[in-house]
Each structure stands twice: as structure tokens, then as C-alpha cells.
Specification:
heterodimer, A: alpha/beta, Peroxisomal Thiolase, Chain A, domain 1, 2 domains, 9-stranded mixed β-sheet, 15 helices, B: 5-stranded antiparallel β-sheet, about 25% helix, globular
Chain lengths: ~400, ~475
């Protein structure tokens, strides 16, 4: 009988590059920047790493396919390296691979690393999709903001909320992330913005304005994981362990079967239930200390709060307006600035979120440190509301 | 009895106010003032002769048994492909059966009437029983040209057959003259025209009367017995002169539609005929002619069966669903007359995987999905395993057409980031009332026209153009049917 991942894996080191428009650095350089911090934090040597998982979403942009770019950039001693890709869940997928190898007892110490170099496209936003394939022949001429913006139309229709009220709520979401990002030296966007500025920004995809969209950034993040026993042998005390790792993937139900109303994420709803069960969390609103969720767009964050069962269905607007997700709220969210301000180098994002939770659990988050957090939840959503990959990770202080 | 069995038409929603041309270009071409009355129909950026032919043919095929169509002819001088059976694409879009004859009639303004005569004679010969003939054109013209003012975009379709005939075919008369009033070379975008006075005196007013007289003599009918005469003519005064020359009264002559659409090329005789048939009465004799390096004339007599024709949007319906465009630069943009900065996102390579297109032709061209034979769930695209939770049946799907299924908006947005000739790109998920849903581009609308719950109708449109290789990709988009209350 499977018993899940809870407390079978310890995180002993993490690293994260500065995110942003890293014009001076290629993907390989960013990998080294994050890895050097991570290895130092873990207090081990490179030769102690027995296997690695490498996540990147747009290899054709800069770094190439296969696992070789990681092995070459870090000059790894010919260990097994696996490249993974699962849209915006790529970084978490790499982490999951490394954790599973440790939990299975196949490896003692593993590395998970994600990277993305997005700012070599020569234009803003994510790279435009190519044409000619079956999907390109039938899918709308859309972009990521347009795909996610549709959540707003359906959410408004379902809960009878005016466009203005919803705009104000999602503006508050972005406002909060800018406040947090300003406190983070590694964040891409470090400037607080007023609600008025957010509301009056140019529309990217109705009703989402410029400030409803996250940054498109360069960056890398990584983790070194081992078993709790080895962590102890290495002299680690009060270390952080993995409580849940869940992935849920769309199967065509949202796009083809007349049931889902377009107002939330089917996958997040399911992955959350499984993650809480795996981690033993009964009341997420009370037990989760903090979160980094996939705020690619402000509306994504709003509906995700409901799928994660932190807010009730239709209740996220009120929670947001009450400041429940602010740094001083009930469950602080996007503590490091989120995708919105820390930035979103796709392959690195899942690991970046874990990095913030890890720092917070160790009390090393500086100006934005929360008071005694115990459980951190991270969430990625790759694709579009109607067709996506969702990952949820829960980590916390090891109590085993 | 052989004749017309059904008719249908399509005029694009957009109409360019001719005064918009004058406002923008009158300083340069004051000679255009004379033609600056009313509006000309204009294709949306995602429409062309093929998409209009599909819309007109859908209109025409309402309540016609598609399985009985045994040939399809498309007539146009603006076919999207020089070497690819355009009528074959039309056939695929209409999801007609495979074992039919498909053929293009092109390279002359009279290609439509020539196709119609060919179809009628084929049915008369007994080899074919029901043939769809579509005429469609969207001719390009230079900015501030007379052609820009006179041309229109539009399409109309006719089904001819030997059962349920609404207008009996009484005969035809053709003339073939290499009278070059204009021409378009194989690699040129625009017509080259000769002097209008010569075209009027030596062309229209000689060729049309000769053919009309020939037609009447052939079937021994007097001009006074003709209810309506349809003969497109670009030059207004010549149009009236021709009537006089064949001793017809002005009330017998069907107007040119200059102020409503402009002249729709090969489609124009069909457009005018389809509109006349909407109000025709049993016994009416209608003479139809097409003109271009000679002429074709046909004579029809309306039967009692016309009374049983079901309502359809038709030419009149589409004429009334108009949006008048006042922005001349939009016309320039949609017709590749202006070189706008489309941004780096527009640079993606649209090379089409032709093997993928062939494998998915029912879906991409015909908008055909599936319905599970075990649970009855309609779904598009049709995949091998049924999507209904708990059903999971494998290879259980039968073909299910979505092109005429009513639908409503479930989600939507207007996207300013996506590269579009007419931003914002509006798209979203539409849900079909009888089952099935799909994420689709929306077209023929602004963001103000859409809201959750607004009724939508699928429409065959240009999806993308691979400029590098000259390939136009088509798919279905969704068009709002009723405007929302905002």
C-alpha cells in the first residue's frame, strides 16, 4: 500500500538566481548562479550528488534539448541527469523526480534544477506559438493572458459580479504582490504600485491590464534533497521535509464535455484534495501558514484560492478585499512577490516558490519574514484554464 | 423538369461607406465623386471568395438533402489556390459525400453563368441529378481606383436538379468574344482596364443586346413576357441603355446593386438572381446573363414549388445585417494595401503540415466532430476515447456535424497581445446547445458584441495565411447572432 511522500525526503539546500532581464547572462550562467548558492547551503560536495533532474520549458530559445545543458553547465561527473518538461509545472516536476528517487531508496542525494532564459526573444510576453500543427490549425489565435482572462468572464457570470468589482479585487491581488516584491532583492519587479495605477493600466487581454500579468523573466532555481536520516547524519537540525507532491493533468473534460463552467481549475481542485490527504492537512485555511501560487495572472490567483479550499467557492473576492492573503493576513500569499514580481522563468518557477517557503521555514526571509510559519504550499498551473498541468507541493518543518 | 432547386447567398457584414474613400482620397482622385454613393460590401480580413462561397452554399443547402448532391462547381476569378481544387475545399467544408465531381470555373466574369449552364445541361443529360454551383469573388483593386468604388464582395449559390424545381430552365444562349475590356495577368494583383467609353459602346451595349435577342429568339419568347432581366453591368448609364436596346421597360430590369454592394464579379448574376427568387411568383420568367469576354444568357420560369421554399437569411437577410465601415485605413489593412507593423509575434512560420491537414480534413474543413454511439455525447474534436466521464468507450464515435449547431458563449476575451489584423483578437469557448464545446476565434464582432450566453454560429473563415508559401489555412470561427444587452 502506497504511503505517499510525507516526511520521506528532506531538503538540505536551495539556491535561486536573481530573476529578471538578465541581459548579461545565458541560461548556463544562471544555472551556475543558483547552484553555487544551493551547494553551499547544503554543505556537501558536488560529487555527493548521485542524480539530477533538469527542468526547462522552452529549450529551443537558448539552451537546447536533453539533460546535457545541465550536466555541461555544472560539469557534473557523468551522473544520470533527466530532462523534464511539464509546462509551468516543469520546475516542480524536476523536484518531484529528485524526491521520488530519494524516497524510493535508489539515490541518497539528488539535485533538482530548473532554468529559463526567456528574454532572448526580442519581444515582450511569452514566445509566440508556431503554426502548422493540428493544434495551430484549430486553436484560437490566442496568448497566455487571453486564455486566462476568460476565467474572469465565466467567474463574473457565475457569481454575478460586476466587471468593476472583479477588476478591483484582482487589482488588490497585484498590489499585494508588488508590495511583497519590493521587499525582495532577488525579485524582477521591485516597485510598489498604487491600485489606481493598476486599474488604469492598458488592457492586455480583457479584463486583464498590464499589472494583472506576471513578469517574463530569466532565472534559475534548484534544490538538493536527501533522506531525513542522511540529513541528520550531515548534521542538519530543524530541517525542512516534503509533505506532499501532487500533479493533476487535464484530460479533455474541460474543453469537450458540457459541464465545467470555465470559472475555476478542475486540476487544481483535484490536486489540492490529494495534496491535503497526502500531507494530513484537514483544514487548509487554518493549517497552511503561507503560499506561493501560480499567479501568472491576477485572476488565476483569485480562483486558485478557491480551488485550494483556502477561500470558499465565490468567497475569494471578499478574502482578497479583506487582506486575508496579504503579508499580515491569515494565509500570506506570494510572500516573495510571486510570479507577478519575482518573475516567471518557466522552468525555474516551481523551485523558486519552494525556495521562498524554505527560506521562510528557516527564518531566513529577511524583511518579509513571517512569524513562525510551519507549513508552506506551492502551486503551479501550466497551460490554460481549459487545458493544463497543475502541481501542488507542500513542505514544512520536519517533525518525524 | 430541370431547373433551379434551391438558392442562397452571402454578403459580408462589412460595408465600406464610399464617402470614406472620398474623405481619405478625394484630394487625390476627385474623379471618384461620381461613384461615391452608398456602400460597397467588403470582406472581413478573414474572408475570401472561398469562405463566402461556403456561407452562401450553407444558406442554399438549408433543407436540401446533401447526400443527393452529385457535383459541385465553384466559379470565381479570385480563387485562393491556382493549383488546388477550390471546389474540392468547398465540398469538404460543406461535408458533402466523397464520390462527386468537383470543378472550378475561373478566369472570366462570366465563369459563374458558364458553370450554371454546364450544370443545367449535365442534369438535362441525365448523368447528374443535383449539382451545387457557387459563385464568389473578392477582387482586389488599387487604392483610389474606380474599381475600388465599383466592385463589391459577395457570393451566391444555386442547386440545380431534376426534382423539386422552383425555376424551370427554359434554355440558354452564349456568345464568346475575346473583348478585352480588362484583364488580370497570372502574377498581377489588379485588373488592367481600357477606356470606359469604348467598353460601353463596343462591349456592353453590343454584346448584351445581341445575346438577349438571341436567347429570346431561340425559345420564341417576347421581351414583354419576361418578368425580370438580370444582367450585371459596371457602367450605370450603359445598364439603362441595354434595356432600351432590347425594348425592355425599366421596371423589368433588376438593379445593379451599386449602392448596396457594388459588383460582386462572377457571383453578381447569382447574387441578383438569388435576391429576385426571394420574391418571385409562380409563372415569372427570369432572364439571367453573365458578362465577360462574351456572355451567357439563361431563361427560367418560376414554378409553384417556389411557395414551398423555406425561409433563410438569403441575400436580403445578409444585406440587412450590415456594419458600415467608415475607417478607410481598415479597408486598406484588410486588403493588403498598406504595410502595417504587425510585430514580432506575427513572424511565426505557418508552414502547414499537409499530411496533418489530410488526416484531419473532416474536422478542420468540415467542422465534423463525433457523437458517442454508446452514451450519445457529441464532442469536437472527435477522439478515439469518449470524453464523457465514466463512459470511456473506445472507437465508439460516429460523425457529427457541428457547422449548423446552435451555440452560446461560455467564456471570452479580447486579446491585444495576439498578432491580429483587427485587434483585439476576440475568442473564447462556445458551448453547443445540443452537446459539445470548443475554444474558437470569434469574428464579425467587437468586444461590445460578446458576453457569456450570447448565441453564436460557426462560420468558415481564413485561419492563417502562410505568405512565404502562398497557402491559406481555413477553420471555423464563431459569429455572434444577437447582440447582448450591456
Amino acid at each position: 500500500m502506497a504511503t505517499g511522500i510525507k516526511d520521506k525526503v528532506a531538503i538540505i539546500g536551495m539556491g535561486c538566481s536573481k530573476f529578471g532581464e538578465r541581459w548579461d547572462m545565458g541560461a548556463e550562467d544562471l544555472i551556475v548562479e543558483a547552484f553555487v548558492e544551493c551547494l553551499k547551503d547544503a554543505g556537501i560536495e558536488k560529487k555527493d550528488i548521485q542524480a539530477a533532474w533538469f527542468g526547462t520549458n522552452n529549450p529551443e530559445l537558448s539552451i537546447g534539448t536533453t539533460a546535457m545543458p545541465l550536466s555541461i553547465a555544472l560539469n557534473l561527473p557523468n551522473i544520470p541527469v533527466t530532462r523534464v518538461e511539464n509546462a509551468c509545472a516543469t520546475g516542480t516536476e524536476a523536484f518531484r523526480g529528485a524526491c521520488y528517487a530519494v524516497a524510493a531508496g535508489v539515490c541518497d542525494i539528488c539535485l533538482a534544477q530548473g532554468v529559463e532564459k526567456l528574454k532572448d526573444t526580442g519581444y515582450g510576453g511569452l514566445p509566440a506559438a508556431g503554426g502548422g500543427t493540428k493544434l495551430a490549425m484549430i486553436a484560437p489565435n490566442g496568448t497566455a493572458p487571453g486564455n486566462f482572462a476568460q476565467l474572469a468572464s465565466a467567474y463574473r457570470a457565475k457569481y454575478k459580479i460586476s466587471r468593476d468589482d472583479l477588476k478591483l479585487a484582482i487589482a488588490n491581488i497585484s498590489w499585494k504582490s508588488h508590495e511583497n516584491g519590493a521587499k525582495n532583492p532577488k525579485a524582477h519587479l521591485r516597485k510598489p504600485v498604487s491600485i489606481e495605477t493598476i486599474l488604469n493600466a492598458p488592457i492586455i487581454a480583457d479584463p486583464l491590464g498590464l499589472y494583472d500579468c506576471c513578469g517574463v523573466s530569466d532565472g534559475s532555481a534548484c534544490a538538493i534533497v536527501t533522506t531525513p536520516e542522511i540529513a541528520r547524519d550531515l548534521g542538519k537540525k530543524d530541517f525542512v521535509s516534503v509533505k506532499a507532491l501532487q500533479i493533476a493533468v487535464s484530460n479533455g473534460y474541460e474543453t469537450k464535455y458540457n459541464e465545467w463552467q470555465g470559472d475555476h481549475f478542475v486540476t487544481t481542485d483535484k490536486a489540492a484534495d490529494r495534496a491535503y490527504e497526502e500531507s494530513g492537512i484537514k483544514n487548509p485555511r487554518k493549517e497552511v501558514s503561507m503560499m506561493e501560487v501560480h499567479d501568472c495572472f491576477s485572476i488565476t490567483e483569485l480562483v486558485t484560492m478557491e480551488d485550494l479550499k483556502i477561500s470558499s467557492r465565490g468567497g475569494a473576492v471578499k478574502d482578497v478585499m479583506d487582506g486575508f492573503y496579504n503579508l499580515d493576513g491569515g494565509v500570506p500569499c506570494q510572500v516573495d512577490g510571486g510570479l507577478k514580481c519575482f518573475g516567471h522563468p518557466i522552468g525555474a518557477s516551481g523551485l523558486r516558490m519552494l525556495y521562498e517557503m524554505y527560506l521562510q521555514l528557516h527564518g531566513r526571509a529577511g524583511e518579509r519574514q513571517l512569524k513562525d510559519p510551519k507549513i508552506g504550499l506551492t502551486h503551479n498551473l501550466g497551460g490554460a484554464p481549459f487545458r493544463n498541468v497543475c502541481s501542488i507541493s507542500i513542505i514544512g518543518k520536519y517533525t518525524g | 423538369m430541370v431547373g433551379i432547386v434551391s438558392y442562397g447567398g452571402y454578403i459580408p457584414r462589412l460595408r465600406l461607406n464610399r464617402m470614406a474613400v472620398i474623405k481619405a482620397m478625394g484630394w487625390f482622385a476627385p474623379n471618384l465623386f461620381g461613384a461615391a454613393k452608398g456602400e460597397r460590401s467588403m470582406c472581413n480580413w478573414d474572408e475570401d471568395s472561398l469562405t463566402m462561397a461556403v456561407a452562401a452554399s450553407q444558406d442554399c443547402l438549408m433543407r436540401v438533402d446533401k447526400s443527393k448532391i452529385d457535383a459541385i462547381y465553384m466559379a470565381s476569378t479570385t480563387m485562393p489556390f491556382a493549383d488546388r481544387d477550390n471546389a474540392g475545399i468547398l465540398k469538404a467544408a460543406l461535408n458533402l459525400k466523397d464520390n462527386i465531381t468537383s470543378a472550378d470555373f475561373a478566369t472570366s466574369m462570366k465563369a459563374g453563368t458558364t458553370a450554371l449552364i454546364t450544370a443545367l445541361e449535365s442534369v438535362k443529360g441525365g448523368e447528374k441529378h443535383q449539382i451545387l454551383v457557387a459563385g464568389s469573388d473578392n477582387r482586389r483593386s488599387k487604392s483610389a481606383s474606380v474599381q475600388e468604388m465599383r466592385f463589391g464582395d459577395g457570393a451566391a449559390s444555386l442547386v440545380v436538379g431534376d426534382e423539386n424545381v422552383i425555376a424551370e430552365f427554359l434554355g440558354s444562349y452564349s456568345l464568346s468574344y475575346d473583348f478585352v475590356d480588362h484583364f488580370r495577368g497570372p502574377n498581377t494583383k489588379y485588373d488592367y482596364n481600357w477606356e470606359e467609353r469604348w467598353i460601353r459602346d463596343e462591349g456592353y451595349t453590343k454584346i448584351y443586346p445581341e445575346a438577349i435577342r438571341g436567347m429570346l429568339k431561340k425559345v420564341d419568347v417576347n421581351i414583354g413576357d419576361i418578368t425580370k432581366l438580370i444582367y450585371p453591368c459596371l457602367i450605370g448609364p450603359a445598364h439603362a441603355s441595354i434595356a432600351k436596346m432590347v425594348d425592355a421597360n425599366p421596371e423589368q430590369v433588376v438593379g445593379n446593386m451599386h449602392e448596396e454592394t457594388g459588383e460582386c464579379g462572377t457571383a453578381h448574376p447569382f447574387v441578383m438572381l438569388a435576391r429576385e427568387l426571394e420574391q418571385a411568383k409562380p409563372g415569372d420568367k427570369i432572364l439571367v446573363a453573365g458578362y465577360g469576354q462574351g456572355t451567357d444568357v439563361m431563361l427560367f420560369q418560376v414554378t409553384e414549388k417556389i411557395n414551398a421554399m423555406q425561409s433563410r437569411p438569403g441575400i436580403s437577410g445578409y444585406l440587412s445585417q450590415k456594419k458600415v465601415e467608415e475607417i478607410y485605413t481598415k479597408w486598406l489593412q484588410f486588403n493588403e494595401l498598406i504595410d502595417t507593423e504587425m510585430g514580432a509575434r506575427a513572424e511565426v512560420d505557418n508552414r502547414t503540415a499537409l499530411s496533418t491537414l489530410w488526416r484531419n480534413r473532416k474536422l478542420i474543413l468540415g467542422f465534423v466532430g463525433g457523437r458517442c454511439k454508446e452514451c450519445g455525447t457529441p464532442q469536437i474534436p472527435s477522439d478515439r476515447i469518449c470524453v464523457k466521464p465514466g463512459c470511456d468507450a473506445i472507437d465508439s464515435q460516429e460523425e457529427y456535424e457541428f457547422a449548423n449547431q446552435p451555440a452560446k458563449i461560455l467564456t471570452f476575451t479580447g486579446d491585444n497581445l495576439a498578432a491580429s489584423l483587427d485587434p483585439p483578437a476576440i475568442y473564447g469557448m462556445i458551448q453547443f446547445d445540443n452537446g459539445g464545446r470548443m475554444m474558437m476565434d470569434f469574428t464579425d464582432c467587437t468586444l461590445d458584441d460578446v458576453e457569456v450566453g450570447v448565441p453564436m454560429k460557426p462560420s468558415f473563415r481564413k485561419k492563417y495565411v502562410d505568405q512565404k508559401r502562398g497557402f491559406t489555412g481555413y477553420f471555423w470561427k464563431a459569429v455572434p447572432q444577437v447582440l447582448p444587452e450591456k
